[in-house]
Structure formats: structure tokens, C-alpha cells
Amino acid sequence: MTDTPAIPARPRPFRPATTEPALVKWSLIGLCLAVLTVLLFAPLYAVFDEALRRGWAFALASLSEPDAQSAIRLTLLVAAITVPLNAAFGIAAAWAITKFDWRGKAWVITFIDLPFSISPVVAGLLFILMFGANSALGMWLVANGLPVVFAVPGIVLATMFITFPFVARELIPVMLEQGRAEEEAALTLGASGWRTFLTVTLPNIRWALLYGVLLCNARAMGEFGAVAVVSGKIRGQTTTMPLMIEMFYNEYLSVAAFTMAGVLALLALVTLTLKSALEWRYADQLAATHRH
Prior knowledge:
Helix 3 packs antiparallel against helix 11 and helix 8 packs antiparallel against helix 12 (about 225-230). The longest helix has about 35 residues, at about 65-100. Helix content is about 75%, strand content about 0%. It is globular, with a radius of gyration of 26 Å. It has helices at about 20-50, 55-65, 65-100, 105-110, 115, 120-130, 135-145, 150-165, 165-180, 180-190, 195-220, 225-230, 240-250, 255-280, 285-290. The chain has two domains: about 25-55; about 55-290, MetI-like fold (Orthogonal Bundle), CATH 1.10.3720.10. The protein is mainly α. The chain contains 15 helices and no strands. It is found in: Cell membrane. Keywords: Membrane, Sulfate transport, Transmembrane, Transmembrane helix, Transport. GO terms for molecular function: ABC-type sulfate transporter activity. The complex is composed of two ATP-binding proteins (CysA), two transmembrane proteins (CysT and CysW) and a solute-binding protein (CysP). This is Sulfate ABC transporter permease subunit CysW.
């Protein structure tokens, strides 16, 4: 009796895991575009349409008001102070967490994430309790001509508290993935600590640092809750652009409010454009960094 030859199984057609029917693909694309239209494109269009409803001349005239000029200057000043300080803190924190082993490191990472979980209004109240006129420290500062609450220093402190996790949280995963081998090799070859940082560490983290700085800058310019609590909303002195937008809108100065909102949106778009341009210009170097 001869053995019956086995019938080979019919091979199944190859289907990559990411291949989906055209209906599914275009449905997902349409859903994404619809969400972006409702949440992003339509509001942006409404802001600029309302700002220019009475023409360019009227919109520009509303920005020339002393209160508007003061709000723009204060917003840029706060961002110019906050972003470099938070960048320095983020680099130092990421370096300490990723390059050294020490007890309590997990707690430090938790505390860095704390501003993400605390309401900005609560953060503002914390600074009121610490530096307000009812506290001993606040009374001493006011008596010596160094007020913090209802002054520019309070706005800077509140903005720094809200934005300081952004740079550190971008740098820590990148520096953990890269490890310590390159820095240790540079130190073994005789490089100083600063030279090692500038020639080895900084080139490897520059893109993560850029992303963190851009996120920090965008949040610093747009922060409302904590700043509204500590600033006192003194016109011409402690009103940033978000606060001025609210004040204009509550006073039924809709063109001025939406024009100021348009300027704030343009600043965010400029930041995004700069980020995209740098990514396009240095795409090869960015890809090499990710491969590394």
C-alpha cells in the first residue's frame, strides 16, 4: 500500500499588518480632518475674521492703545525671562537624573510632573499664600520695596512654575536612551565637564531641547489661570495678552479682543513654523539622531 502524497496547503495571500481597506483609510483621514476643522481651523478663522471685520486700520489702531502695547511688552518680557531659566533648569534636572544614580531620583521626577496635575489657579493661590501681604515673607518684601504678588516678579514666578516641566520632560527620555558611554569616553580622554557637555551631550539633545523650549515658550505666552491670580489685573502694569483679551471682551471691545487674540495666535504659528522649518532644513541630522 503506497502512501498518499500530502496535498500542500494553499498559501494565504500576503497582507501587511498596516494595510486596511480604502474605506477605512479614507474614513480615518476624514475623521481627523473633521476634528481638526472643528477644533482648530474654524476657531482660527473665526478669530481672524472677527479681528478684521472693521478693516485692517481699525485692528491696528486697537493694538496701538497703551493698554494693548503694555500687555504685549509684558508677555514678551515674561517669556524672555521664563524660557531661558526653564531651559537651564530642564538641562540640569535631566543631567542629574540620567547621568547619576542617587536615592530619591524617582521622587524628583514625580515633583517635576507636579505642575501638570495642579490647576494653574491653585498654583497662583500658592504664590499668594507664600508672597502675599498677609504672609511674613510677603510683608517683608513689600516693606523693602520688593513686591512679588500683584507685580511682575509674581507673574514670572507663576509662569515658571507652570512651564518648568516641558524642557525636562523632553530631555529625560532622550538622555536615558543615549546612556552615559559617550560622556564617559570623553572624560576618559581628558575632556573637561563643560567641554563634554558642549561637544558630546548638547549635539545629541539639541532637537529635544528645541522642542521643549518651543513648548515652554508657547505655554508661557498663553498662560492665563495662574497669572490671573497673582497679577491683580492692573491695567498697563500687570496685564499680559491673555488677560487683556478677557478684559477687552468683557468690555464689549470685540475687535480689540479678537485682534489681540490674533496676535497671540500668530506668535504661536510663528513658533510652529520655525520648528517645522528647522525640521525640514536638518531632516537628515534629525533622522541620524533618532537612529542613534
